Amino acid sequence: MPELPEVETIRQDLLPLLVGKRLQTPFRHIVDPHHRNLERAAGDRILGLSRRGKYLLADLGARELVIHLGMTGQLAVQAAPPPTFRHPCVSWPLDDGSVLWFNDQRRFGWLVVVDRGDHASIPTLHRMGPEPLGADFDPESFATAVARVRGIKAALLSQRLVAGVGNIYADEALHLARLHPGRGALDRHEAERLHAAIRQVLGHGILHRGTTFKDYRDGMGRYGGNQAFLRVFDRTGEPCPVCQTPIVKIRVAQRGSHLCPTCQSPGA
DNA sequence: CTCCCGTCCTGTGGGC
DNA sequence: TGCCCACAGGACGGGA
Description:
The protein is α+β, with helices and mostly antiparallel strands. Helices cover about 25% and strands about 20% of the residues. It has a five-stranded mixed beta sheet. Strands 1-7-8-6 form a four-stranded antiparallel beta sheet. A two-stranded antiparallel sheet has the order 10-11.
């Protein structure tokens, strides 16, 4: 499940392989409504590769290629398809003989060409909250926002309070901030703890080149390294790194949620 | 408008 | 051993 650190790692890997190259006619290996208007970008040159939350944005000048990797999406830029790409969805030749390969086992990923900056057809991107590692993700605005929420984990996953947090880093940040995922409105101190925790877990995730829980690979097909540093995610029954209480897994916001029942008591 | 929940998809693993 | 089914989850969209 690529979240902000994984997508940022892929962006850094692919940037030098894509910028300056011209997209040719894409080949669709499968029919999927998640892959929209790709033919519109045939002939466009890739001018830049940026990231917004979990979305990759390839700047095509008048247009933009928007990529969301979903659960299992993988990208590679090379002449032949990586042998591990057993579910190829789109292969997109570039003008230097290399190919942008998109592989997606569970097909929750999105590939969409839009007019540059026109995100109206992509609701989550359109309403995306501030970049967590940017200056406009400030504690004051965040505290105001989380003072109104019904469930803090659902709010984090919505992308509207802050960009790029998914299930893994939500659990990690909530544990670091000592907040139960089912908590409602947060007070000022709690909000400041969570704000700092989000920055820390995402920053460390990038430094470790992402978390490979199962499927994630970087832009060169390599595993991430952050899984060795996870505090609670997928550590059910293992001791809390703070107090040694066994980590439990519960359902919050329709998602599996890992937490320490001592550090993250529901009432605190 | 917001909130909640079903839907999409396939590999995996537990139960029998 | 082999089969079946529940489960995993990001974003969307329909209904309340």
